[in-house]
Amino acid sequence: MRRTERISRLGVLAALVLVTSCESFLDPSPSDVLTPENFYRTSSDAVAATNAVYESTKWSYWLGFWYISDIATDDIMVGPRFGADGHRMSDYIFNSTEWPMGDMWGSAYWIINRANIVLDRVPGITMDPTLRDRLLNEARFLRANAYFDLVRSFGDVPLLEHEVKSLDALRVSRAPAADVYALIVGDLQQAMAGLPVSYSSSDVGRVTSGAAQAMLAKVYLTRQDWANAAQTAGQLIATNRYALLPNWKDCFKIATKITNKESIFEINYDGLLDPGAGSVHTLFSLPSGFPGGAAYGLMTVAPSLARRFAASDTRGLGGTFIRSPYIDALGDTAKWTDPPDTLGPAFLKYLDQSDFQNMHQRDWARQSNDWIVLRYADVLLMYAEAVNEGGAPVPAMTAEQALNAVRTRAGIGPVSGLSTATFRDSVWLERRREFVFEGQRWFDLSRWGTLNAAIQAKTAELGVISPGETGLHGAPSNLLPLPLGELSKNPNLTQNPGWN
Q1: Which residues contact residue 311 at a Cβ distance below 8 angstroms, ignoring those fewer than 6 apart?
Q2: Is the terminal CB of the chain with fewer CB neighbours within 10 Å at N or C?
């Protein structure tokens, strides 16, 4: 039984414990009503509560996250059939009223509160201490991941370290980003030290020590703590626990998701066992009318990005993107005019042509394609970047070797003897080509301080290929606007400069 099946059954139960029956006033000491006070008593309760954190994490990556991380970047152009919200995000003309900001904020604090409940209540349960410690560290990782998404998106954010039991407890001010990062680092360090290396049977897919270590390296990299980023990523590389798959496209293969050697942490969707929350990014990205089921054709790969792939790059034509007409693995010919080729080639990346459901029964919220949060290629490129910027290499690998491993797997030649600046450009380009539509681009542009320039270049490109779509402009800042709804509910919050 995969994680999605397990958490879909237990997540509802765990959610129920967060509320009290509206009829509880009839009995001052009810014994048959599920409440927080009488739920957290057994190891099964502890597992269910932790599974509920996974469940909320699954929903957080379902839709709103990648509207920000990918649609609102220079990697993607949106087609005519995409809604007005998608066009505003892609054109970077959104404001604080846009739903993806509210979705990211609300989803993150939903995860955080559920994780805080585990951390506050599970220690008091009499149960196997090894299992208890593991569950607490899983909750720490998931809380850290949620805070990481918040702080790198919005900067200073409210810091809630315990279960929220009243509305007044939510009306708190923004904490300095440094304080939020301190909690993130502490959580990930504990998780890294206390989580198992791997799992077996139905527990496969839960957070591992390697996931915590890879996430910690990314946190250090975001903070430009090059020494710790290089050391943390380098030590994980030296374990030989993970490896690049020979075929890049196999990273997205449904039959071996989670279990393949490159996978570090994924959001596991099972469209058959949990049809209400199957993934949707495959449907959004495939061109309209693609054989085999639903295909919305809402986006393309930006022409300027498509040109950055060499002809030999297996991630380019036939990997990340395709052009009409295209013959699929079943021999069917796909032709499309929506989205138009002038906006760039159509996406193929998430279509698993070896999967029956992907090829015959695609439908809304019934896809089993995972959302990959961390994979080994990311660790290699983080390490290469950190060492190039001044971090010390580990004996197992040089920065050049780490970068070249990703390039060689893709079918392009290695680099050698580059200056610091040229090597930096090469790493940045490799991250862009490797992780198209994987939730990386906006955060990379933000931490590099190049978001404004990237959006200016995109809007200039749009002016040529889609006149009238938007005027030439950049990004107001390297942060997103706080959701207007949150500002309205909490008078202690303030908006980020440059936004309304």
Answers
A1: 317
A2: C
* Residues near 223 by beta carbon (within 8 Å), at least 6 away in sequence: 181
Alpha helices in 287-349 (DSSP H): 303-306
Please state, in angstroms and rounded to a whole number, the distance separating the CA atoms of residues 100 and 182.
26
Which residue has 């990481």 as its token pair?
148
Residues 195/134, Cβ–Cβ less than 8 Å: yes
Query: Coil, strand, or helix at residue 294?
Result: coil
| Phi, psi for residue 265 in degrees, rounded to 5 | -155, 130
pLDDT over 80 (residue 1):
no
pLDDT tens by residue, 454-476: 999 999 999 999 999 999 999 99
What confidence tier does 17 reach under pLDDT thresholds 50, 70, 90?
very low
Compute the distance between CA of residue 500 and CA of residue 498 in angstroms, rounded to an integer. 7
Rg of the chain over Cα atoms, rounded to whole angstroms, equals 23
Start-to-end Cα distance in the chain: 46
pLDDT value at residue 26: 33
Would you say 407 and 415 are in contact if contact means Cβ atoms under 8 Å apart? yes
Q: How many residues does the chain have?
A: 500
Q: What is the pLDDT of residues 118-169, one digit of tens each?
A: 999 999 999 999 999 999 999 999 999 999 999 999 999 999 999 998 888 8
Amino acid occupying residue 404: N
CA pair distance 181, 156, nearest whole angstrom: 10
Average pLDDT over residues 427-454: 98
Q: Are strands 321-322 and 326-327 parallel, antiparallel or unpaired?
A: unpaired
